[in-house]
Design goal:
With 258 residues, this protein is an alpha/beta fold. It has one domain (6-256): Alpha/Beta hydrolase fold, catalytic domain (Rossmann fold), CATH 3.40.50. It has 10 helices and 7 strands. A 7-stranded mixed sheet has the order 1-3-2-4-5-6-7, sandwiched between helices. Helix 3 (69-86) packs across helix 4. It holds the Pfam family Thioesterase. InterPro entries: AB_hydrolase_fold, TEII, Thioesterase.
Amino acid sequence: LFLLGMENLLVCLYKRPDALCRLICFSWAGGGVLPLAEWGKHFSSATEVSSVRIPNRVSHDKEPLEKDMKTIADEIVTVLLEYFQEKPFAIFGHSFGTYVSFAVALQLKEKYGLEPIHLFISASHAPHSEALLPLKIVSLSDAEEEVVSYMQILGGNAEEILQNENTKKYAIRTFREDLRILQTLSFEKTENNIPFSCDITCFSGSDDKLYDLKGWYDLTSGATSSYQLPGGHFYLLEPANEVFLTKHITKCIENAGL
Protein backbone atom coordinates (compact mmCIF):
# COMPACT_ATOMS: atom_id res chain seq x y z
CA LEU A 1 0.00 0.00 0.00
CA PHE A 2 1.29 3.46 -0.88
CA LEU A 3 2.50 4.95 2.38
CA LEU A 4 1.33 8.49 2.82
CA GLY A 5 3.75 11.02 4.20
CA MET A 6 2.94 14.42 5.60
CA GLU A 7 4.45 16.07 2.53
CA ASN A 8 1.93 14.20 0.33
CA LEU A 9 -1.01 15.54 2.29
CA LEU A 10 -0.12 19.02 3.40
CA VAL A 11 0.74 22.12 1.41
CA CYS A 12 2.10 25.09 3.35
CA LEU A 13 3.36 27.92 1.15
CA TYR A 14 4.20 30.37 3.95
CA LYS A 15 5.94 28.48 6.72
CA ARG A 16 5.77 30.15 10.13
CA PRO A 17 7.54 27.91 12.66
CA ASP A 18 6.87 30.37 15.49
CA ALA A 19 3.14 30.69 14.81
CA LEU A 20 0.85 30.39 17.84
CA CYS A 21 -1.86 28.68 15.80
CA ARG A 22 -2.41 26.81 12.56
CA LEU A 23 -5.29 27.26 10.16
CA ILE A 24 -5.83 23.98 8.33
CA CYS A 25 -7.93 24.29 5.15
CA PHE A 26 -9.92 21.74 3.16
CA SER A 27 -10.78 22.52 -0.46
CA TRP A 28 -13.89 21.97 -2.59
CA ALA A 29 -14.80 18.98 -4.80
CA GLY A 30 -12.26 18.55 -7.54
CA GLY A 31 -10.48 21.60 -6.14
CA GLY A 32 -6.74 21.89 -5.82
CA VAL A 33 -4.96 22.79 -2.61
CA LEU A 34 -3.28 25.97 -3.83
CA PRO A 35 -6.06 28.59 -3.65
CA LEU A 36 -6.50 28.10 0.11
CA ALA A 37 -2.78 27.56 0.74
CA GLU A 38 -2.27 31.02 -0.79
CA TRP A 39 -4.28 32.50 2.09
CA GLY A 40 -1.10 32.24 4.13
CA LYS A 41 0.11 35.55 2.73
CA HIS A 42 -2.85 37.40 4.30
CA PHE A 43 -2.14 36.25 7.86
CA SER A 44 0.30 37.60 10.41
CA SER A 45 3.24 35.59 11.72
CA ALA A 46 0.97 34.34 14.53
CA THR A 47 -0.93 32.00 12.15
CA GLU A 48 0.45 29.39 9.78
CA VAL A 49 -1.90 28.32 6.99
CA SER A 50 -1.82 24.92 5.34
CA SER A 51 -4.11 23.18 2.90
CA VAL A 52 -4.89 19.45 2.99
CA ARG A 53 -4.76 17.32 -0.14
CA ILE A 54 -7.36 14.55 -0.04
CA PRO A 55 -5.49 11.19 -0.04
CA ASN A 56 -5.65 9.16 -3.26
CA ARG A 57 -9.30 8.41 -3.62
CA VAL A 58 -8.80 5.69 -6.19
CA SER A 59 -5.82 3.49 -6.83
CA HIS A 60 -3.89 3.84 -10.05
CA ASP A 61 -4.28 0.14 -10.81
CA LYS A 62 -7.21 -1.23 -12.75
CA GLU A 63 -9.08 -1.98 -9.53
CA PRO A 64 -10.59 1.12 -7.96
CA LEU A 65 -9.61 1.37 -4.33
CA GLU A 66 -12.84 3.02 -3.37
CA LYS A 67 -12.47 4.73 -0.04
CA ASP A 68 -15.31 6.09 2.00
CA MET A 69 -15.30 9.32 4.00
CA LYS A 70 -14.38 7.58 7.25
CA THR A 71 -11.34 5.86 5.69
CA ILE A 72 -10.16 9.15 4.22
CA ALA A 73 -10.58 10.95 7.56
CA ASP A 74 -8.71 8.04 9.23
CA GLU A 75 -5.78 8.40 6.85
CA ILE A 76 -5.59 12.18 7.27
CA VAL A 77 -5.73 11.92 11.06
CA THR A 78 -3.16 9.12 11.19
CA VAL A 79 -0.65 10.94 9.00
CA LEU A 80 -1.19 14.40 10.49
CA LEU A 81 -1.77 13.46 14.14
CA GLU A 82 1.48 14.99 15.42
CA TYR A 83 0.82 18.08 13.35
CA PHE A 84 -2.58 18.48 15.02
CA GLN A 85 -1.06 17.82 18.45
CA GLU A 86 1.85 20.25 18.17
CA LYS A 87 -0.06 23.49 18.59
CA PRO A 88 -3.62 24.89 18.65
CA PHE A 89 -5.35 24.72 15.27
CA ALA A 90 -8.47 26.04 13.58
CA ILE A 91 -10.14 24.37 10.61
CA PHE A 92 -11.66 25.91 7.47
CA GLY A 93 -13.57 23.86 4.90
CA HIS A 94 -15.43 24.93 1.76
CA SER A 95 -18.23 22.88 0.20
CA PHE A 96 -17.02 19.25 -0.15
CA GLY A 97 -14.00 20.23 1.94
CA THR A 98 -16.28 21.09 4.84
CA TYR A 99 -17.54 17.51 5.01
CA VAL A 100 -14.00 16.13 4.95
CA SER A 101 -12.95 18.62 7.63
CA PHE A 102 -15.98 17.63 9.74
CA ALA A 103 -15.11 13.92 9.43
CA VAL A 104 -11.50 14.71 10.42
CA ALA A 105 -12.54 16.91 13.36
CA LEU A 106 -14.91 14.18 14.56
CA GLN A 107 -12.15 11.54 14.46
CA LEU A 108 -9.73 13.83 16.31
CA LYS A 109 -12.31 14.45 19.02
CA GLU A 110 -13.58 10.88 19.42
CA LYS A 111 -10.22 9.11 19.22
CA TYR A 112 -7.79 11.63 20.71
CA GLY A 113 -9.88 14.21 22.57
CA LEU A 114 -8.42 16.88 20.26
CA GLU A 115 -10.56 19.75 19.07
CA PRO A 116 -10.02 22.79 16.86
CA ILE A 117 -10.14 26.17 18.63
CA HIS A 118 -12.61 27.23 15.92
CA LEU A 119 -14.40 25.47 13.08
CA PHE A 120 -15.08 27.61 10.00
CA ILE A 121 -17.49 26.07 7.53
CA SER A 122 -18.37 27.42 4.11
CA ALA A 123 -21.16 26.76 1.61
CA SER A 124 -22.37 23.48 3.05
CA HIS A 125 -25.30 21.89 4.81
CA ALA A 126 -24.83 20.35 8.24
CA PRO A 127 -23.70 16.70 7.88
CA HIS A 128 -26.97 15.35 9.32
CA SER A 129 -29.20 17.74 7.37
CA GLU A 130 -32.06 16.46 5.24
CA ALA A 131 -30.99 19.08 2.69
CA LEU A 132 -28.02 16.81 1.89
CA LEU A 133 -30.23 13.94 0.78
CA PRO A 134 -30.59 15.07 -2.88
CA LEU A 135 -26.78 15.02 -3.21
CA LYS A 136 -26.67 11.58 -1.69
CA ILE A 137 -28.90 10.13 -4.37
CA VAL A 138 -27.33 11.73 -7.45
CA SER A 139 -26.51 8.83 -9.75
CA LEU A 140 -22.76 8.66 -10.33
CA SER A 141 -23.17 6.70 -13.52
CA ASP A 142 -24.91 9.70 -15.07
CA ALA A 143 -23.70 10.87 -18.43
CA GLU A 144 -20.69 13.16 -18.50
CA GLU A 145 -22.96 16.05 -19.54
CA GLU A 146 -24.84 15.85 -16.26
CA VAL A 147 -21.68 15.91 -14.18
CA VAL A 148 -20.44 18.85 -16.26
CA SER A 149 -23.68 20.77 -15.80
CA TYR A 150 -23.45 20.16 -12.06
CA MET A 151 -19.90 21.52 -12.05
CA GLN A 152 -21.04 24.58 -13.99
CA ILE A 153 -23.85 25.26 -11.50
CA LEU A 154 -21.21 25.29 -8.77
CA GLY A 155 -19.17 27.84 -10.69
CA GLY A 156 -15.61 28.51 -9.61
CA ASN A 157 -13.12 27.97 -12.40
CA ALA A 158 -15.17 25.18 -13.99
CA GLU A 159 -15.43 27.02 -17.30
CA GLU A 160 -11.68 27.25 -17.88
CA ILE A 161 -11.11 23.67 -16.80
CA LEU A 162 -13.87 22.30 -19.00
CA GLN A 163 -12.60 24.04 -22.12
CA ASN A 164 -9.38 22.04 -22.10
CA GLU A 165 -9.84 18.34 -22.98
CA ASN A 166 -6.99 17.16 -20.72
CA THR A 167 -8.05 19.05 -17.62
CA LYS A 168 -11.72 18.32 -18.36
CA LYS A 169 -11.29 14.53 -18.11
CA TYR A 170 -9.35 14.78 -14.88
CA ALA A 171 -11.73 17.34 -13.37
CA ILE A 172 -14.82 15.27 -14.15
CA ARG A 173 -13.22 12.14 -12.71
CA THR A 174 -12.14 13.94 -9.53
CA PHE A 175 -15.46 15.70 -9.11
CA ARG A 176 -17.40 12.47 -9.59
CA GLU A 177 -15.14 10.70 -7.12
CA ASP A 178 -15.55 13.47 -4.53
CA LEU A 179 -19.30 13.26 -4.93
CA ARG A 180 -19.11 9.49 -4.40
CA ILE A 181 -17.14 10.04 -1.19
CA LEU A 182 -19.64 12.63 0.00
CA GLN A 183 -22.38 10.03 -0.46
CA THR A 184 -20.60 7.78 2.05
CA LEU A 185 -20.69 10.42 4.79
CA SER A 186 -22.89 9.21 7.60
CA PHE A 187 -23.50 11.02 10.85
CA GLU A 188 -26.43 10.38 13.14
CA LYS A 189 -27.32 13.39 15.26
CA THR A 190 -29.03 12.45 18.50
CA GLU A 191 -30.24 14.79 21.18
CA ASN A 192 -27.40 13.94 23.55
CA ASN A 193 -24.74 13.85 20.87
CA ILE A 194 -23.11 17.30 20.69
CA PRO A 195 -19.66 16.39 19.38
CA PHE A 196 -17.88 19.74 19.74
CA SER A 197 -17.41 22.52 22.26
CA CYS A 198 -15.50 24.90 19.95
CA ASP A 199 -17.05 27.96 18.29
CA ILE A 200 -18.43 27.42 14.79
CA THR A 201 -18.71 30.15 12.15
CA CYS A 202 -20.60 29.54 8.88
CA PHE A 203 -19.98 31.48 5.68
CA SER A 204 -21.94 31.44 2.42
CA GLY A 205 -22.43 33.43 -0.78
CA SER A 206 -25.55 35.58 -1.09
CA ASP A 207 -26.30 34.30 -4.61
CA ASP A 208 -25.67 30.66 -3.75
CA LYS A 209 -28.47 28.35 -2.67
CA LEU A 210 -29.55 28.47 0.97
CA TYR A 211 -27.74 26.10 3.29
CA ASP A 212 -28.98 24.41 6.43
CA LEU A 213 -26.64 26.28 8.76
CA LYS A 214 -28.88 25.86 11.78
CA GLY A 215 -27.87 22.19 11.74
CA TRP A 216 -24.24 23.20 12.32
CA TYR A 217 -25.27 25.09 15.44
CA ASP A 218 -26.57 21.83 16.93
CA LEU A 219 -23.09 20.29 16.73
CA THR A 220 -21.38 22.42 19.37
CA SER A 221 -21.90 23.79 22.83
CA GLY A 222 -19.71 26.74 21.81
CA ALA A 223 -20.77 30.03 20.24
CA THR A 224 -22.09 30.03 16.66
CA SER A 225 -22.49 32.71 14.01
CA SER A 226 -22.99 33.01 10.25
CA TYR A 227 -22.09 35.52 7.56
CA GLN A 228 -23.31 35.94 4.01
CA LEU A 229 -20.89 37.49 1.56
CA PRO A 230 -21.68 38.79 -1.94
CA GLY A 231 -21.31 36.18 -4.68
CA GLY A 232 -22.16 32.63 -5.66
CA HIS A 233 -20.86 29.24 -4.55
CA PHE A 234 -17.26 30.39 -4.98
CA TYR A 235 -17.73 33.78 -3.30
CA LEU A 236 -14.49 33.10 -1.37
CA LEU A 237 -12.39 33.55 -4.54
CA GLU A 238 -13.44 37.22 -4.82
CA PRO A 239 -10.54 39.37 -3.56
CA ALA A 240 -12.76 41.55 -1.32
CA ASN A 241 -14.31 38.46 0.27
CA GLU A 242 -10.90 36.87 0.72
CA VAL A 243 -9.84 39.95 2.70
CA PHE A 244 -13.00 39.80 4.84
CA LEU A 245 -12.60 36.07 5.50
CA THR A 246 -8.93 36.20 6.43
CA LYS A 247 -9.46 39.25 8.68
CA HIS A 248 -12.47 37.68 10.37
CA ILE A 249 -10.71 34.34 10.87
CA THR A 250 -7.72 36.22 12.35
CA LYS A 251 -10.04 38.00 14.78
CA CYS A 252 -11.67 34.72 15.84
CA ILE A 253 -8.29 33.11 16.42
CA GLU A 254 -7.12 36.11 18.47
CA ASN A 255 -10.31 35.93 20.53
CA ALA A 256 -9.52 32.34 21.39
CA GLY A 257 -6.90 33.86 23.70
CA LEU A 258 -4.00 31.54 22.93
